[in-house]
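We treat protein structure as text, and this decision shapes the records that our systems exchange. This encoding replaces a full spatial description with a residue-level series of whole-number codes. Below, we set out a record of this kind in full and without editing:
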Amino acid sequence: MKTEHQGRDAMPREAQLARAVRLALGALGMTAALGMSPGALAQTADGEIDPALRRVEITGSAIKRLESETALPVQVITRAEIEKAGVTTAAELMARVSANVGGLTDGASINVGGDQRGFNSANLRGVGTSSTLVLLNGRRMANFASPGDDTGVDLNNIPAAALQRVEVLLDGASALYGTDAIGGVINFITRKDYQGLDLNVYGSRTDEGGAGKRTASITAGTGNLETDGYNVFAVVDLQKTDRLSTSQRKFIPNLQVPQRLGHLLSSYTSPANIRLSGDQRDFLQEKGFLLNGKPITNRLINLSIPGCSGPANVYLPAGTGGVDACTYNYMGDTELYPKTDKQNLLARGVFKVNSDHQLYAEAALSRSRSYYVGSTSRPDGDIDAGMVPQLAAAGLTGPLALRIRLDEAGRRTSELTSESQRYVVGATGTVAKWDYDIGLNHSVNVVKDRDTHGYLLADQLQQGITDGQINPFGASTAQGKALLDKIQVNDEVRHARGSMDSLDFKFSRALTAMGGGELALAVGGEVRRERTEFRPSELLLSGNITDDPAPEGGRVTSDSRNVQAIYSELLLPFTKQWQAQLSGRYDHYQQVGGALSPKIGLTFMPNKQVLMRASAGKGFRAPSMSDLHRPTVYSQTATLPDPVLCAAEDNDYSSCANNWDTRRYSNDKLKPERSRQFSAGLVLEPSQHWTFSADYWNIERTSLISEIGDDIILGNLAKYGDLVHRNEDNEIDYIDLRKENRGAQKASGIDLTADLHGVKTAWGRFGGHLSGTYVLASKIQTSPGDAYVSNLNTFVTDGVVQRWRHTITLDWDLGPYSASLSNTYSSGYRDQNSAINTDDGSVVQPNRVKAYTIWDMSGAYAFSKQFKLRAGIQNLFNTSPPYSNQAYYFLSGYDPSYTDPRGRRFYASANYSFK
């Protein structure tokens, strides 16, 4: 996926050196991921350095300079690379970056009633979405407003069609943009002075059906800034993606979830399971009551066994339902990928006051709507035993507790809308040799979560079950079906709004000459106000919606805080070989406090073929507004056994495994996380065609803001048993998950790149790239004094960090023809294997997840300078996600955080430009 390198062979040696230095700064790591030479950003079509780009501002520095001079690792993706990759969203783009581990995606956010559905995020180095800073044109955006564990910008709000390039700073804790960027900074940079009209359409379909996509974008601009004194342009991007259901993928039954992961399935079935009390079970056993020709042994029974009315409801003696009841396989009755509609508009205008000053304004509007369809409603219910003829005949009396799966009510469906507005006005220019940029930024994100179908009014549902209108064991009467239609909920149950208003400024200039160039200084600062509002609906707060409980102490919340920051940067080119970059930033957060975060970067170039660099710094991340003030959230664990109950039930998982209720609490006493990081790198350019780089990075965080994982709590009840609340029968009532400053995190690794470019032959021009990340350590300490738990190549609680991830690309072009072949790879790892069996420590067969490798291919033909067609195949060999027994995500049988269930996809795009 490497683009055409026009005039590469004619590039002067100094330009090659500049490109080598840019590689040293890590540009290759990202550009290799999508196959574009970093040198292209600073070249014109004939291969010469573009004079207009000789002094530019690069992410990681506030001082304008040659791109090749920056001291920190900046990786660059150009617009051409994005087009060649066949990706249409910022989230898809970031999924191809080896340093991005465990970001949130449409697939991973599938859930029923889960936090932050619809949120697409980046997660550099795997240290957390909240520790990756996302910018648009160098400035912050409002975070995804829905309260939850992750804080960050929704990548759906990035107008992908408007992007000119993306710059990624992998050196964490930016002293310039915010020291909460512990994992790094991603700066999405849009076009700024476009002229003409550009039309682009894109369509894709999958080999097995579902998840098709259509996109269209229009870019229009007028005015030449130099000759006309102004430029105004706008970009409109429209996208639609179809839903993908489990029934549309052959690999789902091949995962054998019922056979392998029976403990993860549900005991809420259709026909309904009956949950007997201990006395009721004993009574039926004494009476000789038989099911399926055998005496009952468990408290959970189903009168229809072994039929169970498949296909999603199955008889699975080893599953959660046990030998006397049914088990519900929700992986046979849900969606793998949501239907989405996404619209983005970006408009920008620049007015030239004179040769030294410009005024600019920018507006970005976006709306992303995701339609989540989960399994059918699963209410509890109660009826009198006399209403069940078989049990009444046995003499059983009293109330019966039911675990019902209401297929007649339809699958639970939600509509999640994320809307963003961002307005920036500012001025830039030069005053008395000082370059300046001053801007006002108003940014808003609104998230609307609507229950649209399959959620029911609980009181009327229970009454309908009790009086017999709704039949939990089969088809209901016409009256019962009419009642189910009547009590369907269509309500915006959660409304969240987050806003950010800021004023920022920066000034920079050269001060004096030094041995290697000009000593330069930059100073800047920012004042911003952050606001969050969360408004649950009256219906939600009433607690009267099945499967969507009211938060404890639920109420409307509105919180705000002020943040101030000031920073400075000093560039010290001691000699032609030695250069230093010194910077520092002081941030102060209302209620939380402040901290000074220093940073130093060094580069040494002993000759034109070798460059060495290093950096070190400190940072801190203040707790988010959600961490501090989020209302208590009622949720559930995956289906996990309770060791205490299992010991009393002879390890009968039909009796001692369940989706245990949890209560997740914020904490307004949280303190900031602290971090320190350093890196060191080496770049070699042995010839004009080859460049190699290796960069070591190391991050350590302390006072982590986190919860203890529910699997860790149940796995160590001796230490964390006080977080597990039990009822009078010694069954789990709920588990406390509390935000605290606890423990630490360490991560380190090596980024490796290799670049072969400009190999010109009689059969065309060839190139190749490799970009990979080899992780040396990734581990978390749950509490001070505890041993570190490594999630390197091991799934722990909520995810895994694979030891090795890479992207390899091979490129070819000849005249109007071009083609590329790319491979993305994630190494295998030890599976979660942590659901508890008091006999052998596991309820699943220990598993090692296989490596995941995907091949993509594309080709293009340029009919003219104006018109180009491209076609490609993503996931060429239709590789399915490898089997996993993870119990964290709603989807089971594979890990949706880094795999793609869509399978082989064919796409084509057409682009026409009027200049």
